[in-house]
Amino acid sequence: MIGVVAALGLLAACAADISGDDEVEITMVPLGRLSPGHLVVAPDGRSSYFASATFSEEDKRVQVLDNARREIVATYTFDTDPDDTWVRGMALSGDGRWLHVITSHRLVVLDTATGATAATVVPPDTVGLGALAVARDGRHVYLFDDQSALLGLPGRIFVVDVGTATVVGQTALKRDLANGALVSPDGTRLYATTSGWSKNRTESQVALETYDITTTTPRFVSDIGLLPPNQGVYHPALNPVLSDDGQRIYAVGSYRDLLVVDPVHERLVATIPVDNGGEHVRAVAVRHDGSAVYVARDQRTAADGPVVAVVDTATARIVDTLVGFEDDYIPALAVAPGDDTLYTASVTDPGTDTRYGAAQIVDLDDQGT
């Protein structure tokens, strides 16, 4: 059962201790007319993949960054249909061999060695896919049909067998929309940050839903309330990330806070203000050693550029703010496997139909962060 949000009153929002700005040295790699909204780093740390969050003809591609050379070395393209509006998510298999990209209505599996399309899966009767997660063994991909709310129905989870490129199972979500999904390190649990309306459509809810995936069809286990009622349908829990040990999930709450969840004991443990009085908070990344979380937020004026707040996970406080980034905003972050490099996907929006993207790279060891 979802916890009564009044109980969240026992969980006071942690005070953010902003210790000052840290001007960082940044390597910028232009991505051209790509508006990157999705970024993943290969498990071996050699490559990073950038995909657009919009969908013009120029955006139907993935750009591949060689992390050592810090230059784009390949562009992967894939087929879509007129109903596909934009790239909704991207995830790598555990061995880094396969890159999974979802559009509004399909899953495309790309071979990272060649960029070739290895499989395309179109789940039946989807209104719009919104999130995905890959099983730890790589055998299944979980797709979330997150706009079934338009039909007055809950969202759905589709289970795709990667080997046969077919849908082999499905189950209903407890709420309308899935905003992000993760698989536990032991491969037995599927987590989804969700939002939607109560049965009588009078109260909005935002939660973390947990499913048992030890069998083909996911089985609902529990849910945890993340935001007070009527706060989060249009300002939900976004871009969740999981610590390597599986003990913490971090997500953006209502575009202003960092939500900290203990998925093992099924509780919200902290809500950390990160917006600094009004800026838009967009993306989260966690160090592999679990010591810090990086949170991207806009600045008050476009001239300032976006910043990245560094949250100490032991104290739940902001201990540093990385400044010096260019472009208008940062919709995606990732930390290299050795915790020595922070990769960001940034966007310049001139207010026209054309946006421009870049990879902005920070050597964390050089910054002492």
UniProtKB/TrEMBL annotation:
Keyword DNA-binding included in the entry's annotation: yes
InterPro entries to which the protein is assigned, alphabetical: Host-pathogen_enzymatic-act (IPR051200), WD40/YVTN_repeat-like_dom_sf (IPR015943)
Gene Ontology MF, one: DNA binding
Gene3D superfamilies: YVTN repeat-like/Quinoprotein amine dehydrogenase (2.130.10.10)
Keywords on record: DNA-binding
PANTHER family: DIHYDRO-HEME D1 DEHYDROGENASE, PROTEIN NIRF
UniProt-recorded name of the protein: DNA-binding beta-propeller fold protein YncE
Organism: Saccharothrix violaceirubra
